[in-house]
Design brief:
With about 290 residues, the chain is of the alpha+beta class. Helix content is about 50%, strand content about 15%. The protein contains 15 helices and 8 strands. The protein has a 6-stranded antiparallel β-sheet with strand order 1-2-6-5-4-3. It has a two-stranded antiparallel ribbon with strand order 7-8.
Length: about 290
């Protein structure tokens, strides 16, 4: 059934939304700039905008949102044009053993996030819990980002652009509780600001060369690079492997034996191809909550 988009009382209403569970999308470890207000009720901060969004069954309410903002920002951000029913079917055709993971987290979608914010967020993510990453992102935004006024007059702060964050000192970053990651953030800012590692350059490269370019940034390893490719550059064939993915992949495909992350990634990409990133998200969130 096709989605039906209407406006009512200044709010945008989207009916007949399939394969979409707001909490599963936001809480699955792919983004960190949001606040939970209530069950399936969130404030999302992205692209210099703040969105109050709530889900009721197969209906989404985007409060105080214009049709123009939806078309220019949120439609792509939430990947609304992708047929996730078909994506899940194709994954299951490749590997039926994923049925439990997919059915458990069937409402996950992969967000299309800002490249620079994604890069810095996943540098911060190393050896931190999601709640800690969210707090660091909020600290950086509040200290260095632009003020955003919500539709009810509330004050929020957007994530700073590369020019602003590049001007920040290492000590100022440490005040945001990023710890040992401060010099890595500085290095990333410099590489992007000076044009050596940019979205335009990365978009023109094949995924292996793009990964290698990202890994020239101090503090960016293969896992962080793959997360940036998947969540900040739309490279859906990327397959990040962290401790949770390593555990579930070893359990499912390697007889529980300790296996190098590069071998796991190669196996997954050979198995799922251009759908690797989607398969990774269903497996990751399932593993994180069940292993």
């Amino acid at each position: 059934m096709q989605m039906d988009i209407t406006t009512k009382d200044g709010n945008l209403i989207i009916d007949n939304v399939n394969d979409f569970v707001l909490s599963q999308i936001l809480e699955c470890g792919q983004c960190f700039h949001f606040d939970r207000l209530d069950e399936e009720d969130y404030m999302v901060n992205a692209y210099g905008r703040v969105l109050h969004i709530r889900q009721k069954g197969d209906m989404l309410i985007l409060y105080g949102t214009s049709h123009e903002d939806y078309e220019h920002i949120w439609r792509n951000y939430f990947d609304m044009d992708n047929d996730y029913g078909m994506i899940k079917k194709r994954i299951l055709d490749a590997e039926n053993a994923l049925s439990t993971a997919i059915n458990d987290k069937k409402g996950i979608r992969i967000l299309n996030q800002d490249f620079f914010e994604t890069l810095i967020s996943f540098i911060i993510s190393q050896n931190k819990q999601i709640s800690q990453i969210k707090q660091c992102v909020k600290n950086i935004s509040h200290k260095f980002g632009n003020e955003i006024i919500g539709y009810n007059g509330e004050v929020f702060y957007g994530f700073p652009d590369v020019e602003r964050l590049n001007s920040v000192t290492e000590e100022e970053l440490r005040e945001c509780k990023v710890g040992f990651r401060a010099p890595y953030i500085k290095a990333a800012c410099k590489e992007v600001y000076e044009g050596r590692v940019t979205k335009d350059k990365l978009d023109r490269l094949d995924i292996n060369d793009a990964r290698q370019l990202l890994m020239t940034i101090k503090g960016v390893g293969e896992k962080v690079a793959n997360c940036v490719l998947l969540f900040g550059l739309g490279r859906r064939e990327a397959f990040p492997v962290d401790v949770w993915m390593k555990r579930i992949m070893e359990q499912m495909y390697f007889e529980g034996k300790d296996t190098k992350k590069c071998e796991i990634e190669l196996f997954a990409v050979n198995k799922f191809g251009e759908l690797s990133g989607y398969a990774q998200q269903y497996l990751f969130d399932y593993a994180r909550n069940n292993l």
